[in-house]
Amino acid sequence: MSMKEIYHIKEKKEKKCVKISSERNGKEFRKEKIMRENVTVFEHPLIKHKISLIRNKDCGTREFRTVIGEIAMLMGYEVLRDLETELVDIETPMEKTKGPMIKGKKLAIVPILRAGLGMVDGMLSLVPTAKVGHVGMYRDEETLEPKEYYCKLPVDIDQRLVLIVDPMLATGGSADAAVEFVKKQGAKQIKFVSILAAPEGVKYLSEKHPDIQIYCGEVDRGLNEHGYIMPGLGDAGDRIFGTK
Ligand code: PRP
Ligand code: URA
Q: Is the distance from the beta carbon of residue 126 to the nearest atom of ligand 1 less than 6 Å?
């Protein structure tokens, strides 16, 4: 996966919209979307393919959960591309040498409950030593306001790169509340990773928190009158845990 396969998002000030371009096989593709500089939308065909699998209403709980984990791993691979490395001494069976290893940077993965839990194992498969925090949040079905019910973070969260994960970024209310909470606990470097997003949520979160990086597997058309992403994939939590 190369950086060229990621959308590069630049703000086009005069039109208040954004030109997104990507380059693959020497060809440049362009799209118009309302976004900001701190938003990356992945274009990798494996991510796109897997998102199409889980959109299908006939995708069962087991497959849905598996594929969410696979997408999380593919996204995590790119999200962590800028981790710093340092040269360390190594002794191979042949001779002494030096090789790059991830520099002291500690990580925390923070899923927004419940659906975010589906992304944890995929991320942990890349960084097994990461600590895991939890932010319990559900959307009130009437008001769409996030309601907090459980929060627990690693004690040294201020020294960690924090990856907040949630497959769905809809209105952005839950993501905003989670970011606010993590910031209040002292976190300084935060990345928000979602699989499907609505333009409304991307705009809201990126404007409210211009200091964090936001990553999306896909940005859909918009929200319906109940705050669901369209065409979307339905209720991610229910589909991961088979509760509906
Ligand atoms: C879903 C999803 C996000 C939130 C997104 O969770 O996992 O956390 O909705 O919506 P928003 O951007 O409008 O806040 P939900 O409240 O359904 O809880 P669940 O994961 O327990 O099902
Ligand atoms: N939460 C979900 O699980 N799905 C949506 O489409 C919106 C919010």
A: no
CB atoms within 10 A of CB 85: 11
What is the distance in A from the centroid of ligand 2 to the CA of 193? 15
Q: Mean per-residue pLDDT for 27-39?
A: 56
Span from the CA of 226 to the centroid of ligand 1 (angstroms) = 12
Measure CA of the first residue to CA of the last residue in the chain; give whole Å. Answer: 36
User: pLDDT at position 36, please?
Assistant: 73
What pLDDT does 19 receive? Answer: 40
Ligand with smallest separation from the Cα of 241:
1
Ligand 2 proximity of 121 Cβ (cutoff 6 Å): no
Q: Encoding tokens for residue 44? A: 């990798």
How far CA 24 is from CA of 1, 21, 27, 30, in Å, comes to: 11, 10, 5, 11
| Ligand approaching nearest to the C-alpha of 200 | 1
Which is the closest atom of ligand 2 to the Cα of 239?
Answer: 3
DSSP for 115-145 reads GGGGGHHHHHTT-TT-EE-EEEEEE-TTT--
- Global pTM? 0.87
Asked whether 205 and 172 are in contact (CB, 8 A), the reply is yes
Write the DSSP symbol of residue 4.
Answer: G
Q: Which residue has the tokens 């991830």?
A: 102
DSSP bridge partners of 33:
18
Closest CA to 160 of 213, 102, 107: 107
pLDDT tens-digit profile of 134-158?
Answer: 999 888 888 989 999 999 999 999 9
Percent of the chain with pLDDT over 70: 85
Tens-place pLDDT, residues 156-191: 999 999 999 999 999 999 999 999 999 999 999 999
